[in-house]
Design brief:
heterodimer, A: 315 residues, mainly alpha, Ammonium transporter fold, 59% helix, B: alpha/beta, Rossmann fold, six-stranded mixed sheet, 14 helices, 17 strands, 28% helix, 20% strand, globular
């Protein structure tokens, strides 16, 4: 008899793998990425490419230094690079993309243990780092098109207002992304399309984005005195879609429990709205998700599901 | 259409098409059987024969020692060649009685019909089941008479027959339901009388519509028995999950089905009860699905207990290619064998042959905290955390995260995209926790 493999059950495994999941996220982000290149032309393409290359190179380099197996083939570094690029304005200089990506991978991801161990979303942490360090470069919003005319984002225009200002772009342009903003934050509709794909593939549950966006929607409705247009601008502009669909659903930095995810999403929505309405920044998505990232372990601890048979003792 | 089900669970590929349309075939008479003295959960049996004795079909050759135990009978007529420790399909070595068949199949005079259910008292039925050595035939092999003897303070209201057969590949129960529906109903009625319950359920997964139809016809005259369609989802046939699907009651953590007034038995067990009452023949053969890419001709075989796996493989055309893994049971909960030189036992619901490629476990990578294991765990645990604690030898934390509530269905290991051996590591922590508890007592 030849040697037989002996192992404990189960003996079959699903075909799903980490790299398939990550590849799905890349695919989901493609429409918005293509739109970014379409709206913001060559500079967008250069920034996206630089961010991705830097992210992958840093991951490879860090793992080389730490004598670990390389995980660059799991596409997670590609996502970080791409997400970071989508978080910066198209007018940013090339080194913003490089510094941001390097920070995301080296500091936020690898120094904390690599994939699955980062306590914050790497791309988002890098975005906030860049915004604080190079505020000018990170808020040089330009109008879509070849001319790169400086403009303000819809949220910038609405800052401090509880009504919709007159000079704001049309709601239609806001939804399709024909407005100023970070490269990937502009086209809400394409980001939603990608989100639906991710939900269809079972990569994310739509619960988190829906609750997050819903919370912001309700709060802006209240703040704007039940002005529907005001609410729609808040829902469709800024980083809300990108954040709610692609960053608040980040596995490593959000709770794994079902109830925990609900609390996490509501918390993101409340903090986002608070910063938008009362803070000094026009946009609060980045800070809100990072703050909830930090709270995630605690939320997870207190939302452990009731084990089967635990409640109905002697029912 | 919404079917009865539990929360959580997975949808592994079914792989049932290889055998689901093949009628049950009688296996070739074994010339030699090796019958282990322990084929059940509980105390092993003591041999009642010695080398050189002539034994008959259905003759008791191993006496149950203790209440949680089940006697063992000869499946052939012939001469006892030896009694010795031999490799067992449940791992390790077990005292086994080797009998050389004389090919006569002379039946022991003790094997006589036991009469009609109506004429039998509840205690008689439990006694017949006990003497027939009947155990849970879905693979768990818990002695059936023990299940049917609840303490007097436990009021049992329902008996549920498990016809879910949620394990991939396996079709033995499916074929049994198609071919012997009346035996199953007879056995269920006998067990219902034995514990005095009014309500019986037969739960079948929706992927077996033919079996559902046939079983529904078979219970037409018995209004207190209901055939229910279960969602096709693993582990639908797990005891506590099946009870939840049928009764919407959660068996308390650490408790038994009787705590919610239910007893669960496999359809195969019920059919065996019918045989024991109708003919008096104890449990000496069972239906086993022989399947997998590694076997030439997959079959559903009626195999005598003690037949060697080796000879079963031979009559199924032999190995299709170099075998990588031999499983006793299904691919989710079955036991990998280190040799094909073991016997078919009372719990052998399946004999699966995997190719070398299929046998290769995928390389685990880092946990990405996707939470899929939490989403699908039918016991509502957080496998990623328990597993992590186990790997880091933090057994107290594993216990706090309720490792002992794990039903070992393997859904978490199956679904994990990082291919982390979640169940395997949780098992390790359970062992530690249980060992520690024993020490404390």
């Amino acid at each position: 008899m030849e040697k037989l493999m002996v192992s404990s059950s189960p003996h079959i495994w699903s075909k799903n793998t980490t790299s398939k999941i990550m590849l799905d996220v890349v695919i989901a982000l493609l429409p918005a990425t293509i739109a970014a290149v379409y709206y913001f032309r060559v500079n967008a393409a250069i920034l996206i490419a630089l961010a991705i290359i830097t992210a992958v190179a840093c991951e490879w380099g860090m793992q080389k230094i730490r004598n670990q197996d390389s995980t660059i083939s799991d596409f997670s570094a590609v996502i970080t690079g791409l997400l970071l690029a989508l978080n910066i304005p198209a007018s940013a200089p090339w080194w913003i993309a490089v510094v941001g990506s390097a920070f995301a991978i080296i500091i936020v991801k690898q120094l904390f243990g690599g994939i699955g161990q980062n306590f914050m979303n790497p791309a988002l942490a890098a975005r906030i780092m860049l915004t604080i360090s190079w505020t000018g470069n990170m808020s040089g919003w330009i109008k879509p098109g070849v001319d790169a005319v400086t403009t303000a984002t819809p949220l910038g225009l609405m800052k401090g207002a509880s009504v919709v200002p007159k000079n704001i772009p049309s709601l239609f342009d806001t939804v399709i992304g024909n407005i100023g903003g970070s490269m990937g934050e502009t086209s809400a509709i394409l980001l939603i399309l990608g989100g639906l794909y991710l939900a269809y593939r079972g990569v994310i549950s739509l619960k988190v984005p829906l609750i997050y966006v819903g919370t912001v929607g309700i709060l802006s409705l209240l703040y704007g005195g039940f002005n529907l247009t005001f609410m729609l601008y808040h829902v469709f502009s800024g980083g809300l879609m990108l954040g709610a669909i692609y960053m608040a659903t980040d596995y490593a930095s959000s709770p794994v429990t079902k109830r925990g995810r609900v609390i996490f999403a509501i918390g993101c929505g409340i903090i986002t709205s608070a910063i938008r309405f009362y803070g000094s920044y026009p946009e609060g998505v980045g800070f809100s998700i990072l703050l909830m990232n930090v709270a995630a372990p605690l939320i997870e601890k207190y939302t452990s599901p009731k084990v089967f048979g635990e409640v109905k003792q002697n029912a | 259409m919404k079917f009865l089900t539990f929360k959580g669970g997975i949808h592994p590929p079914e792989f049932k098409e290889m055998t689901e349309r093949l009628p049950i075939e009688k296996a070739i008479e074994p010339s030699l059987v090796a019958i282990p003295m322990q084929q059940h959960i509980g105390a092993p049996c003591e041999p009642t024969v010695k080398a050189g004795d002539r034994v008959l079909v259905g003759q008791k050759i191993g006496e149950a020692k203790g209440f949680v135990s089940a006697p063992v009978h000869s499946s052939v007529s012939g001469v006892v060649k030896s009694i010795a420790k031999m490799p067992s399909s449940s791992g390790g070595e077990v005292v086994s009685i080797v009998i050389e068949s004389d090919g006569q199949n002379e039946v022991d005079p003790s094997v006589t019909p036991k009469g009609r259910i109506e004429d039998l008292k509840p205690a008689d039925i439990v006694g017949i089941i006990k003497e027939a050595g009947i155990v849970g035939m879905g693979g768990a092999t818990f002695p059936t008479h023990v299940k049917l003897s609840p303490p007097p303070d436990k009021k049992i209201e329902t008996i549920i027959l498990n016809g879910a057969e949620c394990e991939p590949y396996l079709t033995a129960d499916h074929r049994l339901m198609l071919e012997k529906p009346d035996d199953i109903v007879f056995g269920l009625r006998a067990m219902m009388k034995a514990v005095g319950v009014e309500k019986g359920f037969i739960g079948i997964e929706s992927n077996k519509p033919d079996a559902i139809e046939i079983m529904k016809k078979a219970v037409v005259k018995h209004t207190n028995i209901e055939v229910v369609t279960l969602e096709t989802k693993y582990p639908q046939g797990a005891e506590k999950q099946l009870i939840y699907a049928c009764l919407k009651k959660e068996v308390p953590s650490g408790g038994l089905p009787m705590d919610v007034g239910a007893i669960v038995n496999n359809v195969g067990t019920a059919a065996q009860v019918a045989i024991a009452i109708k003919t008096g023949m104890p449990l000496i053969e069972r239906i086993t699905t022989v399947s997998g890419k590694g076997i030439k001709t997959p079959k559903n075989l009626l195999i005598k207990i003690g037949t060697s796996v080796n000879s079963v493989i031979e009559q199924c055309g032999g190995y299709a290619e170099k075998p990588g893994k031999i499983l006793m049971g299904g691919p989710m909960m079955g036991l990998a064998q280190y040799s094909d030189d073991v016997s078919i036992t009372k719990g052998s619901s399946g004999l699966l042959l995997f190719t070398e490629e299929e046998a290769q476990a995928p390389e685990p990578s880092a946990c990405i905290r996707c939470g899929k294991c939490v989403d699908i765990c039918p016991a509502y645990l957080q496998p990623l955390h328990i597993s992590n604690f186990s790997f880091n030898h933090m057994m107290e934390s594993a216990e706090k995260y309720r490792a002992l509530d794990c039903i070992e269905c393997g859904s978490c290991s199956y679904i994990c995209p990082a291919k982390i051996p979640l169940l395997q590591s949780i098992r390790v922590s359970k062992r530690y926790i249980i060992a520690k508890k024993r020490k404390q007592v």
